[in-house]
Amino acid sequence: MSFYDSAPPAFLQTLGALSDILRKAEGYATARKIAPETLLAARLYPDMLPLTRQIQIACDFAVKTCARLTGSEVPSTPDTEKTFDELQQRIAQATDFVKNAAPGKFEGAESRDITFPAGPDKTMTLKGQQYLSHFALPNFYFHATTAYDILRHNGVELGKRDFLGVK
């Protein structure tokens, strides 16, 4: 299996699932006359980030991981989304970025040094394989799962197949 096969396909599957989950959430809010902002601002616990940030961060991990692994410029995306439509656009942009990551640029990335921010005033450097397996993918899945959990906790009818993106 190529290193490319370890990253973009996983990101694309879950980004697609997040898009479908958000579509269901929007339909749920409309059907039950719930203000969209109520779901978008929902959290699992007061000290956790809201749904909008969970989606933004998941998108960032997909994009920035692919950029770092391919040696491309890491894009900066302001976190301004406040609606379901805007979050769908964010997911679509992340999906396009990941789809356009050239497979050949991943060659050798597993042993390349990847330096990335690890807090406000700190950076870390890991080999590409460690970065992907022990940092990027776990963080990506954490935020995608938390988005799913927030919506499920608020009554949106979702199941494992929704999270996995299986139709």
Automatic annotation (TrEMBL):
Pfam families: DUF1993. This is DUF1993 domain-containing protein. It comes from Nitrobacter vulgaris.
